[in-house]
Design brief:
- The chain is an alpha/beta fold.
- Helix content is 50%, strand content 13%.
- The protein has two domains: 4-125, Response regulator (Rossmann fold, 3-Layer(aba) Sandwich), CATH 3.40.50; 143-200, Arc Repressor Mutant, subunit A, CATH 1.10.10.
- It has a five-stranded parallel β-sheet with strand order 2-1-3-4-5, with helices on both faces.
- The two termini are 49 Å apart.
- This is Response regulator transcription factor.
- Keywords: DNA-binding.
- Residues 139-204 form the HTH luxR-type domain.
């Protein structure tokens, strides 16, 4: 199997030795200072330890420049979700606990070198929760013109439910469902159920 190269920038000898244990698959090289990052070929895989003295005062613009050129995995011995979001916003390809289990370190490198992003479970849950909240807020804005019942009917219709199923779910008649849908179509300025679904989910049509 051809070895792939990962460059590690850290002042922590113990941390570097952890990455050295990946030597069966990875050629692990230690960088002597952040200035060496600029000399690496584009798309090089690098692990950057936030505790490294040379990185302590690094400006956001520099992190963005490195992340634009390199596959940068940022590791921290005291990771936080806010710090993870900061580096991901800066373009980092991954963020992890510096002392993650060896099997996790292997997964991180494999995922990042394949072109994907890596985030820990806690940060992933926070990102997903934020996405769900954003979608709910977006939907609320789209349906603010509707009455409570019209909104219930419209949301179920946007999920693809039939008039009969909507009627059974809300315990109303199909005729009432049709009346609420007609009102929703008029208020949201759409002409059919497909346009209604697109409108509610914020998809241009």
């Amino acid at each position: 199997m051809t070895q792939r190269t990962v460059h590690v920038l850290t002042d922590d000898d113990a941390l570097f030795q952890r990455f050295m244990r990946l030597g069966d698959v990875w050629s692990v090289l230690r960088l002597q200072g952040p200035e060496r990052l600029d000399a690496l070929p584009a798309e090089s895989l690098v692990v950057l330890d936030t505790a490294c003295a040379g990185l302590a005062a690094t400006a956001l613009e520099q992190w963005q420049a490195w992340s634009a050129r390199l596959l940068a995995v940022v590791v921290s011995s005291m990771p936080t979700d806010d710090e993870g979001l900061y580096f991901l916003d800066a373009g980092a390809s991954g963020y992890s606990h510096a002392y993650a289990a060896e099997v996790t370190l292997r997964q991180i490198l494999d995922v990042v070198v394949s072109g994907e992003k890596w985030v820990g479970k806690s940060l992933l849950n926070r990102l997903l929760a934020g996405l769900q909240q954003a979608r709910e807020n977006h939907t609320d804005k789209r349906t603010v013109l509707l009455t409570g019942r019209e909104r219930e009917v419209a949301l179920l219709a946007a999920k693809g439910q039939s008039n009969q199923l909507i009627a059974e779910t809300l315990q109303i008649t199909e005729r009432t469902v049709k009346a609420h849908l007609s009102a929703a179509f008029e208020k949201l300025q759409v002409s059919d159920r497909l346009q209604l679904a697109l409108k509610i989910h914020g998809i241009p049509h």
